[in-house]
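dude i think i finally got it to work??
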Amino acid sequence: MTQTNFRPLSIPDVDLRGFWGERIDAVAAKTVRILYDRCVTAGMLDQIDPSRPVPAQRIPYHVRDGFTAGTVTTQMFWDSDIAKTIEAAAYALYRRRDPEIEALMDEVIDMYARLQQPDGYCSSWYIRMQPGRRWSNLRDCHELYCCGHMIEAAVAYAQATGKRTFLDVMCRYVDHIATVFGPNEGQLPGYCGHEEIELALVRLSRETGRQDYMDLAKFFIDARGQQPHYFDEEAYRDGRDPKNFHFKTYEYNQSHLPVRQQTKVVGHAVRAMYLYSGMADIAAEYGDDTLTDALEILWDDLTGKQMYLTGGIGPAAANEGFTAEYDLPNESAYAETCASVGLVFWASRMLGRGPNRRFADVMERALYNGALPGLSLDGATFFYENPLESRGAHNRWIWHHCPCCPPNIARLIGAIGTYMYGVSDNAVAVHLYGESTARITVAGAKLTLTQEGDYPWAETVTIRLGLDQQAQFALHLRVPDWAGKATLALNGAAAGPVALDAAGYVTLDRAWADGDSVTLHLPMDARVMLPHPRIKADTGRVALMRGPLVYCAEAADNGADLDMMALPASLGAVQTARVADLGGAVAVDVTARVDSDAAWGNTMYTTNPPRAETAVRRFIPYHLWDNRGAGEMRVWVRRAAE
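look at this
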């Protein structure tokens, strides 16, 4: 097995402060308990606990074209929701030891230990709700998907608490799965309709040192889309017509072609992101350039033709995913929180083969603007969809019949330190900036790397190095594409323009000593963003960004005239201000043209242009919208004539 070039740090090796520290505190203090309580209220533990009577089904089946009664209900993947809650709790326990939360998680884990069958099988749905149906419909029913999230939770919980019960349960489950699926005679050449287990098995292999778990992940990726098609064969065995299913195409779950032949990002957005994440892991672990080449093509398709400015992906609710190139409506945008979480996963794993801002810049954009809006500032309410425009009716909710997004964004925030850094034998990469302290072993030395600076609000980042001995290694510092006039100073010397390598990083390869420091200045001028001319929804519109953040106008600051406002492509004087009721976030105040309809009366159409005046309008970071009550919001506003 080829060693990965760069691997992320583990959770306990990074301490967060500042922006991300505050958000982890909210997750630890409030979100995790909310997730647990709402899982209990939904009835999830009644389904999992084998000591309780088998409960009545609480969420009805989807009865629609191609799905007959008794086929698909969101209740069949409750194991994944509970697992992500356990994982989020594990990360929170690093931040804030909470014996009560730990005891609750231990209790749920004990339920799974008692639920597990003698052969290792451990799905609450197929043990309790539909016994005798295991492995009968991988296309629709999420068995391996649930297992993947349970694996991730088990690894995280063992690392956080030192308790191996859940990890042992999942190792036995995976050992069973490895007897059922594989390329050998008597095994099923199958894979899940909802990808996730692939990346989870990589994580389990790294935790346990078991190469067979890595090989199983590779099998699931290599088998996908091969002919004869597994989902066809599975349907025939189960007495179903393989053509009679809701989405009518295997593009929906990215099994229409073998993965190395896929060139378009299609189908369900979350499934696609999880698949590509697993592919990237396997590409790095096995040094598989064929997978990397395929992923590069898919990356260009997504980021060049199908991604919102925010890093949101998947514009359509009908398939929770992709439609056509440049089809990016604003008000009806689906842009599921989980999809942007998945994009962060994929981008991070693309960095496994070396630093590259092509991936890290998108990781940062999706993190701040695509995923983070999914959790309110206080950690108590959530978004599932993330439109870029609202008339005031789209608001954060307490819970959802498909509650996948709340624990997903919570576990991402709790694990943010693992996305910030990468390390190889003789190099350290800083992919994301934020106040933090990382403990790293590199080039035979113990390094403490400390970031200082109020990022993403302030422009200067200082990195201080503490070493137990002098060491020669490369320090790779990402210079975001938006920071065109970045400067760097080493050990207090006069700052000068950065010299970027081909990957968009500053690389300082030298003998480092205890007390060395690097100061990076990343200018955060507010900038107007123009859309691709093929994006019809944004024709004649502009948007505003500052640093890594997409900004929006909200009625709370500007009243109800957002559609009357227009911004020039070239901004004039711009002011920034801290907003106390948004946690001290930096707002941008710009001079806009505001049309007036005062003289129109009941006339809807006229040859006369509207009267206009100039006025200062406030834009706030998009991830913070709807934290101050219901109201209108716009990311893209009209472009003023110049």
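The chain has a mean pLDDT of 95.
im so relieved honestly
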